[in-house]
Amino acid sequence: xxxxxxxxxxxxxxxxxxxxxxxxxxxxxxxxxxxxxxxxxxxxxxxxxxxxxxxxxxxxxxxxxxxxxxxxxxxxxx
Length: 78
Fold this sequence. Notes:
Number of helices: 2
Shape: flat
Order of helices and strands: HH
Distance between the termini: 64 Å
Strand content: under 5%
Number of strands: 0
Radius of gyration: 24 Å
C-alpha cells in the first residue's frame, strides 16, 4: 500500500462523517429548544422557501441585467 491511501478506506471515512453529521443534525432538531427571534421563523420550512425564492430572484435579476446592460448588439463594433 505504501503512502497511498486506498479509495475504499477514504469512502469509509466519508460515510462515517456523513453518518455522524446526520446523527448530530437529528440530535439538534429533536433535543434542543429553538427560540425564534421573529414570528415568521416559527413557520416550518420558512427558511427553505425564503432561500428558494431568493435564489430564483437572483437568477432572474442577473439574467435581466445581463441582457439589458451587459450584452451589446451584434453590430456594435461596425
